[in-house]
């Protein structure tokens, strides 16, 4: 499972604009063989990175960089990084689109994150010059303004809407109805199929088996999982739920959702085509 929680996948185009970048976005770094597309956009939030009890970066001018199509990472202007905590390794890291980067270890006292900082001083992408890339997972915490963020920076073009509905949702696995509800909440997330969150009272709880799997999403929080046993067959991690979702996703607290990719979903009596995603 990916670090990013259930259903975290995005299309490679910018929503509503075909394959052209939205206003204010710079699309750069398409290599001649079609690999390595990178796009950048100036951020508007104050961003801080914390490691070893110290703020190692604090900027009002973050650069959002889409190294992959699915989500951005933060690059911080060098002047907003505590460079005394950066220790040169003498190594370089190569990217087909971003060029060669000097590699640094982040060291604070007796704590260190080996190779956690990159600086593309001679990048063919002009926007990256003068910026430091801190590995998100290697830091102890990241903050946008005064709120901690998790997994990766939130994409400003990803929207999550959670709506109460009276649609009739029925979930089948191996021909057995495992959930049926007329009071679902529908979660619409940019670039993803609709997810149906159901009250637990509308689910065959006797078929659910707790799982140790945990995933995290920057928009919804930490998800826990159930597997479903139908007859002698165990369907692993096909159900997830959020005990304590992030504020913007509070409406799904205590509800459960099924991977539409792995179960049969009937909406108002009509069997839905299973969506094709990386899940």
Q: What do we call the CATH homologous superfamily of the largest domain?
A: Domain of unknown function (DUF427)
Helix content: under 10%
What's the CATH class label of the largest domain?
Mainly Beta
Find the CATH topology of the largest domain: Metal Binding Protein, Guanine Nucleotide Exchange Factor, Chain A
What is the number of helical segments per DSSP (H or I, 4+ residues)? 0
InterPro entries: DUF427 (IPR007361), DUF427_sf (IPR038694)
Domain DUF427: 47-132, 169-261
What can be said about this structure in brief?
Residues 47-132, 169-261 form the DUF427 domain. The protein has 279 residues and is mostly beta strands.
Describe the structure.
This protein is an all-beta fold and 279 residues long. The chain folds into two domains: 111 residues, Metal Binding Protein, Guanine Nucleotide Exchange Factor, Chain A (Beta Complex); 112 residues, Metal Binding Protein, Guanine Nucleotide Exchange Factor, Chain A (Beta Complex), CATH 2.170.150. The protein is built from no helices and 23 strands. The strands form four sheets. Strands 1-2-5-6-10-9-8-7 form an eight-stranded antiparallel β-sheet, with no helix packed on it.
């Amino acid at each position: 499972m990916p670090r990013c929680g259930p259903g975290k996948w995005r299309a490679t185009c910018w929503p509503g604009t075909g394959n052209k970048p939205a206003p204010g976005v710079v699309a750069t770094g398409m290599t001649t063989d079609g690999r390595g597309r990178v796009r950048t956009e100036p951020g508007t939030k104050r961003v801080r990175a914390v490691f070893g009890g110290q703020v190692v970066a604090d900027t009002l001018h973050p650069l959002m960089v889409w190294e992959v199509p699915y989500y951005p990472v933060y690059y911080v202007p060098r002047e907003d990084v505590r460079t005394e905590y950066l220790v040169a390794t003498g190594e370089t890291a190569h990217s087909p689109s971003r060029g060669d980067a000097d590699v640094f270890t982040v060291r604070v006292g007796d704590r260190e994150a080996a190779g956690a900082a990159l600086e593309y001083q001679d990048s063919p992408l002009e926007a990256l010059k003068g910026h430091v890339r801190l590995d998100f997972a290697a830091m102890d915490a990241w903050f946008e303004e005064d709120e901690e963020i998790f997994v990766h920076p939130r994409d400003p073009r990803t929207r999550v809407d959670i709506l109460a509905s009276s649609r009739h949702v029925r979930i089948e696995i191996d021909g057995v109805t495992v959930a049926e509800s007329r009071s679902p909440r529908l979660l619409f997330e940019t670039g993803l199929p609709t997810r149906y969150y159901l009250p637990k009272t509308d689910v065959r709880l006797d078929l659910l088996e707790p799982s140790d799997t945990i995933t995290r999403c920057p928009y919804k929080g930490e998800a826990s999982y159930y597997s479903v046993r139908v007859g002698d067959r165990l369907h692993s991690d096909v159900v997830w739920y959020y005990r304590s979702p992030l504020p913007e996703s509070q409406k799904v607290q205590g509800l459960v959702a099924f991977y539409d990719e792995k179960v049969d979903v009937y909406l108002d009596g009509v069997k839905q085509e299973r969506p094709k995603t990386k899940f």
